[in-house]
Structures
1.
Amino acid sequence: MTVHVGVGGWVFEEWRNNFYPKGLSQKRELEYASRHLTAIEVNGTYYGSQKPESFARWHDETPEDFVFTLKGPRFATNRRVLAEAGGSIEKFLDSGIYRLKKKLGAINWQFMATKKFDPQDFAAFLSLLPQQPDGAALRHAVEVRHVSFACTEFVALCRKHKVAIITSGDSEFPLIADVTADFVYARIMGTSDKEKLGYSKAAISKWAGRARDWSRGGTPADLPLLAKAAAKTPRNVFLFVISGAKAKNPAAAQALIAAL
């Protein structure tokens, strides 16, 4: 299966004359990024709706094997009662995201660090996430940031709904590495300005190895699990270098691609 590696977004001032060649037009930044990375996580969809034409343009400007993951809208996740998020979820799914066609990799439903695990309410939220609306398969992943989610009950719930738990690596957030869907979604956040590639060569090798293990259906031996390991089966993997020393993230992503 495929390991897709990328960064968050493609418009960032510090990437100009650094990741992007000097003099490259801003209109061509997505074109350039998509030919040096294999995926991009779109953050703008978290804050507001995008136009259908934007999704279509992103599709047309990128290579055939490139993928986008989208953040679900904060209006769905930043609420007291998650069971009431149906309207926001439906609006997002109807906003034109299917214009990405096969380049729609997964959807990241990100929750604030203050959001605690409420089994009943979270189950209600997961039941609102359609798997195949209009025949188009969707991959859903949840990014939880409160320690109360680090439990076997949460893992079992996500497996029941076939929703991936995002592995937050090298961060202050709980690291949950249990595989709960037919794909894996990881976000690593430990790049440093002190490293030429953002990460040390050893760290690059470690994360590339973990991604390789996941894609081959295994479980990285150096990552702790909360529950019994998932059945061994090949999986697609989405691995993003996020936060940390953001100016270094494209270099780290490219180093991971090279290592893989």
2.
Amino acid sequence: MEFNNLVPELSVSDFVASLSFYTKVLGFKAEYERKDFAFLSFQGSQIMIEQVNDHWSTGELKAPFGRGVNFQITVKDVNSIIESLKDNDWPLFVGLKDNWYKKEDKLIGCREFLVQDPDGYLLRFSQDIGTK
């Protein structure tokens, strides 16, 4: 396995609950684990989760974690993830929507939705729907 150049590491308040959410609900693969830590991948994206500790602490963590950031995760099919979230009674933060982003003289299309993980980190799953 090759590591991406940027791999966020998220401090989580309940490692077992977060690992279950990422692997069982969202479908991430645990590439490797050790006590209170996991390196996860999903369709080319990578993320690490680790039980809150004092090692990386820059201040008090208060829910929701990750305020001011969302993690865009490009996927092949957003619908299958939404179905799994529904099956697990997990609410969406922002429902499914087609968005068009200007890039030079074109519009890049993304079908996307947002969901919060157990600690409130905001995840934006995005599917390419072409350009115009």
